[in-house]
Amino acid sequence: MDVNDMQIGGSHYRMKYIHWDFVCDTNMPYLLGCATKYLTRWQSKGGVEDLRKSLHYLRKADELEIYMPENKWWEKPIFDIFGRPTTEQRIRYYTIHFIAQLPAPEANIIRLIVGGHYDMAENKLDLLIEEELSKPCSGYTNQDPTYFRG
After folding, report:
1. What is the Cα 31 distance to its own chain's centre?
2. Does residue 144 sit within a domain?
3. Cβ atoms of residues 85 and 93 within 8 Å
4. Cα Rg of the chain (Å, integer)
5. Domain containing 120: what range?
6. Among 6, 58, 79, 113, which residue's beta carbon has the most beta carbons within 10 A?
7. What is the DSSP letter of 137?
8. Three-class secondary structure of residue 85 per DSSP
């Protein structure tokens, strides 16, 4: 049995290309792996708290100036002198493959993180959190203002 075929505790990582494979395939640093993990699962597991965790990890990576290896893959040649894909090309390939499974806001934020644009990614995460917090609570049915749940 493949390890990817099982999950302990929930089903929030059910994708064709799983987050931990993306992190391993791109040699993503720990803090960025955590930031992208929480961003990837927030809708199916931790909600706004996961978005805040993602932002927290991203800010720590920014503070320590931790970036993806060779994060300017769009400026470099696609193949090395032996015709093999370069590190930049591998990162680009796996990033595109991974974010294709995600909703646009999350995909854009991960693209910015991989590209080293932390300020822009942090702004988009802040906006996503604000947007989510401004939504009315779904499933709330008690309209009695005197009701107190204790």
Report:
1. 11
2. no
3. yes
4. 18
5. 24-134
6. 113
7. P
8. strand
Distance between CA atoms of residues 127 and 21, nearest Å: 28
Task: Give the pLDDT of the chain (150 residues) as one tens digit per residue.
Answer: 565 555 555 554 567 899 999 999 999 999 999 999 999 999 988 899 999 999 999 999 999 999 987 655 455 555 566 667 778 888 889 999 999 999 999 999 999 999 999 999 999 999 999 999 998 865 444 455 554 444
Q: Is residue 106 part of a domain?
A: yes
User: What is the C-alpha to C-alpha distance for residues 29 and 35, in angstroms, rounded to an integer?
Assistant: 10
Write down the pLDDT at residue 33: 97
Please report where in the chains the tokens 């995460």 appear, as a residue.
125
Helical ranges in the chain per DSSP H: 19-26, 30-41, 48-63, 87-99, 104-114, 118-134
Q: Could you give the number of structural domains in the chain?
A: 1
| Tokens 């005197």 -> residue | 146
AA identity, residue 44: S
Residue 141 inside a domain? The answer is no
* % helix, strand, coil for the chain, step of 5: 55, 0, 45
- Residue 139 placed within a domain: no
Q: Which residues of 82-113 are buried (b: 16+ CB within 10 A; e: fewer)?
A: eeeebbbbbbbebbeebbeebeeebbbbbbbb
> What are the beta bridge partners of residue 85?
79
Residues forming beta bridges with residue 79, ordered by sequence position: 85
